[in-house]
Amino acid sequence: MTAAAPSDAIDTAAYRVRDAAHHWHPFSDTKALAAEGVRVIVRAEGSTLWDSEGNEILDGMAGLWCVNVGYGRSELAEVAAAQMRELSYYNTFFKTTSVPATDLAAKLAELTPAGLNRVFFTNSGSEANDTIVRMVRHFWQVAGKPGKKIIISREYAYHGSTMVAASLGGMSAMHDQVDMPLPDFEHIRPPYFLRDGGNMTPDDFGIAAAQALDERINEVGADRVAAFIAEPIQGSGGVIVPPASYFPEIQRICREHDILFIVDEVICGFGRTGAWFGSETFGLAPDMMTLAKGLSSGYAPIAAVMVGDRVAETLIERGGEFFHGFTYSGHPMACAVALANLAIIEREGLVDRAATDVGPYLQEGLRSLADHPLVGEVRGVGMIGAIELVRDKDGPIFFQPEGAAGIRCRDHFIRNNVIMRAVRDTMVVAPPLVISRAEIDRLIDTARVCLDLTQRDLGL
Ligand code: PXG
After folding, report:
1. What is the pTM of this model?
2. Cβ atoms within 10 A of the Cβ of 199, count?
3. Domains plus CATH for the chain?
4. What is the DSSP letter of 299?
5. Torsion sign (Cα): 175, 193, 217, 282
6. pLDDT tens, 133-181?
7. Whose C-alpha lies nearest to ligand 1, atom 22?
8. Which residue out of 27, 65, 277 has the highest number of ligand 1 atoms within 8 Å of its CB and is therefore the one to mutate?
9. How far apart are CA 410 and CA 450, in angstroms?
10. Ligand 1 centroid to residue 6 C-alpha, Å
């Protein structure tokens, strides 16, 4: 590991003032952040970040669940520079393409499950999900069922931050602020066993949770429902891992009512679950798929919609022009970087590493925390995991108000220079796929310390 960035490289206090004056941060209380002072990240390598004060921080979240190949890959910087020299930009609107855009489309068709052969490029997961909503509604119009408009999603789902993506999502705080969801978006309960499982077996609960979809379809009428969307594992919702029985029943219900099945792979894709896609881990055959994050490991902003043959053939044969696209759809630099990122994942066997090496090691480490008095459940698959904190394991009894314990625990992680995120009272982790076993040990050791400190804070 190389030395930390010099702490005097920038004037941290001055940056805090400048940032507080001008920079509006996403998902932040700007007033509170200004009072506290922002942390300036200056450099990163592998799974380690350095801030402007010289702190070395282990990034247990791979940025925002995205830096799958780890930080500091100069190979990707070189690919970006070479592409920018050769062709910095051209659009894909006017009967044109670029070599990286076409090559990436073909590569994604090869990597994703059978039947997903067409790619529409966007810049973000939010835009990809917006695109999906437009494609899905257009599909049903062209297919002669224009009444099919409603998209059913789940509580705690996160599908992005535009009006449509946030309406797809099931985050009540986002909805309440600005009168969302928009019309024709419905939400059912997620397969959240710890919260709702009661005395059921996980498999019985999985079937019951899936049947909520059937019930909602029957309530609103199958002739009005266009699609159901789900993340294989709900990431930002708190790493909600479905029981094995859940998705087979969901897929049966979608087929029975002729509802398209959309899988949002923004977090689960590109090795996170120990397979190329969460769809493989859970045996899913989606009609459409959302890709982002690990597609470029965050080195360039790029996302994509994978369109399955049924939707693509109908829309391409009979849909005419699709009035939709972004200036940077298929940006040559972003596509070149994504291709090189996928080549790294393949060359270094990072999917297999997540499945057979660091993935099981991480899960074992997390499970070793299950005996802690605050830990109600440990869950996860491959390189995504969670520890849910409870007031009492018996019941379980959850914290009131919700989230207070999670924030305390998260703050202890920050003070210990390890990043693990709190979702309500669940601590979530999704490190780079290149993280070492020694770094996982540090993460788990820190987690135990932070759990103890949180327990002490709460007087439990
Ligand atoms: N789908 C899923 C499953 C996501 O996790 C998006 C879509 C939207 O992608 P864009 O690129 O528009 O952000 C996401 C994004 C968090 C956090 O703190 C998670 C995301 C984004 C920002 C913060 O958990 N996920």
Report:
1. 0.97
2. 6
3. 12-69+351-458 (3.90.1150.10), 76-347 (3.40.640.10)
4. S
5. positive
6. 999 999 999 999 999 999 999 999 999 999 999 999 999 999 999 999 9
7. 64
8. 65
9. 8
10. 32
